[in-house]
Amino acid sequence: MQRFVALAVFLCGSLHGETALVLPFFNQSKSAGLDWVGESIAESVGDSLVSDGLLVLDREDRLEAYRRLSLQPGAELTHASIIKIGESLDASKVIYGFYELRADDEPGQEQSKGSLRITARILDLKNTRQSGELGELGALENLGLLQVHLGWQVLQSVSTKMALSEGSFMAARPAVRLDAVESYVRGLLAASAEQRHRFFTQAARLDPHYSQPCFQLGKTYWEKKDYKVASGWFERVQRADRHYLEAQFFLGLCRFHNGDFKGAEECFQSVSAAIPLNEVYNDLGVVQAQLNDNASAAASFKKALDGDSADPDYHFNLGYTEWRRGQYAAAVESLRAAVARNPDDAEATTMLGRALKQEGPRPGDSRAEPRPRLKTTYEESAYRQLQAELAK
What we know:
- The protein is α/β, with parallel strands linked by helices.
- It contains 18 helices and 7 strands.
């Protein structure tokens, strides 16, 4: 958290102070084949809350809490267990509920998979009170629409600002095919990387406008260093997706590796305009340096340092950029700071020596000139956690 302290003044004017935990909804139907629906509802409701700027604890946090409390994922939780999970994760609100599939056997109607009734509650741990029931009822085939509208209801109940109207909210989240939703959630639940890839690919193929599997596939190919394919998937992640900014960050990195520096700059600029993360400012500076816009690069690196002056790479990148600009005194100051923080950094030591000698770039000798350093870890979650802490 310490690396974000310099942002505190900026944050205090726009905080929710809420940390939400959305638990998988419990299956009260007799069909075990619908257990995936509860995870899908939780994902969708969580997406809705993130869109309003609330910190929503992710699935990994929740699974870790289950392990610590010896709770079985998928089991129906008691009220006491729900409170314990929420308290263990320091959540201020817990959203939970159940769903039930009922057969549609009215004569004269087209064959349906049945009617799905979803019931949700919001437990306010901060003020020790529970909301009334929120609900949705409709055909199972319309699960995508039902869970998005439930997300709207939950958001109405917990938000203090509500910038979007219901119509705008729903329009930004078009309904997704049931089979695509099922494939995506089964991908989340899959045990192996091969299974996850197969389910996510199937989900994206079944509904080309479905954003969530595109993000997951983008991360898969990013980790394989297949930057061209990863770019294609990240480009399909929509603004309403909770991972949109993260997708833009990794799209920027992919474009950088693909040699599209202008496109990378646009990605990092869009993310930095929405959320002031040090790693985003740093990477924006890296691509600006690559575009020979050294003045802008130096300004970006200074913003990264404002957020985390302990990071040696930020000092190195600023020193390198000042060196390229012929600002040797400023370069020496930054490079000394980089070496002080990492004495084993041979490259920073060499650059410091060149700056002290006022020895500039050597034309035609690319081996003698280093490159600024990218950051590949995206820490929006830590930033959101600081928001929540400062608002308490």
